[in-house]
Amino acid sequence: VPETASEEPGPAERAEAAFEAWHVHRALEELPETERTVLELAYWGGMSQSEVSDYLNVPLGTVKTRTRSGLHRLADLLEELR
Amino acid sequence: VSREPDFLDVVGKDVPAEERDRLRRVHDLLVAAGPPPELPPALATAPESGATVRFLPRRHRGALLLLAAALAAAAFGGGYLVGGRTNEKSTAEPVRVVPMHGTELAPHALASLRLAAKDDSGNWPMEVVVRGLPKLPSDAYYELYLTRKGRPVAPCGSFLVHGGTTRVRLNAPYELKRFDGWVVTRQLRGQRDTGTLLLTT
Predict the structure, then answer these.
(1) Between A44, A64, A75, which is nearest B67 by CB?
(2) d(CA A49, CA A52)
(3) Model's pTM, two decimal places?
(4) Does B48 touch chain A (CB under 8 A)?
């Protein structure tokens, strides 16, 4: 069997990724609850925007507005943290 | 655990190019970060008050159950992975830094446990840095516990805060590998059971 380098990330890469994730999670906690909720459902609940709208029983347009606003706010927060 | 969200579905197609690039970077960071080591409130609670109860599609229910299980398993390990990355000054060089965050009862509270090397007697000295917890009345105090299956089982010391940031030295005289996380509770003096959970890993 030929020896090949592992494609798995090394300890340093995993630590860096964990640190980045920690930053993202901390920034998320700063968002208004309405924005944080739609982002959590979309990114970690596996829901489309329409499904988030159904799940929360709020209009699709509201979900989209909250999502975009939340992403903008998150970008600002992440830039502040760096 | 769950499918990756489609960027265009999330932000829409009518976004100017410059804005789209900025949002794309945040989108990629969210995807890479994955869920936090505790189930986000949006995934742990029922829909908003007054909303019609709707059951998730079967694939989502399964995904959320798996997500909850994965998060429970990752809760403690995540703290170890970020070890050694901090800007806070300390007198003892930590070998591990474990971040803690507030529960729903203390959503703005944060803490970090800076564990120094275990001594020859089996003690893990640590400095606890706490922010965002309120000053307590004189009949109450905060207690740090190690948890097993999420339940506080091993006390590691008590402390008070003055508001703002508090640093306190505590000790964990246990084999840490026997536990799966940490919590901070609010205790009443004379109270025998564990109090209200305010911070968790």
Answers:
(1) A44
(2) 5
(3) 0.44
(4) yes
